[in-house]
Sequence to fold (93 residues):
Amino acid sequence: MYSTIIHKLFLTCQETTLLLEVKNNLPLSFIQNIRLQIHLYICKNCQSYHQNLKTIDKILEGNIMNPSAEGNNDLKCQQLKTRIMKNITNEKK
Ligand SMILES: [Zn+2]
Fold:
């Protein structure tokens, strides 16, 4: 009984990252949003994943909305890779 309640209240990290990806394309239910927010509140790894996802989306949106920036794609891609690797390295410490 207790484990069922815990299971229904809290998402796993895997479920959370999946919901974060889904949330970018589809609206989540009220319950899914609550469970997602609870997990993000308590899990530093998923908070970091969420932040990285938002950064990537912002960069991609900027490139789509600003086609003149296409010439800098290689540089921006390299900067993005560097930032992601830096975040991953910091998480492992
Ligand atoms: Zn998590």
Notes: The chain has a mean pLDDT of 83. The longest helix spans residues 44-65. Residues 11 and 39 are 6 Å apart (CA to CA).
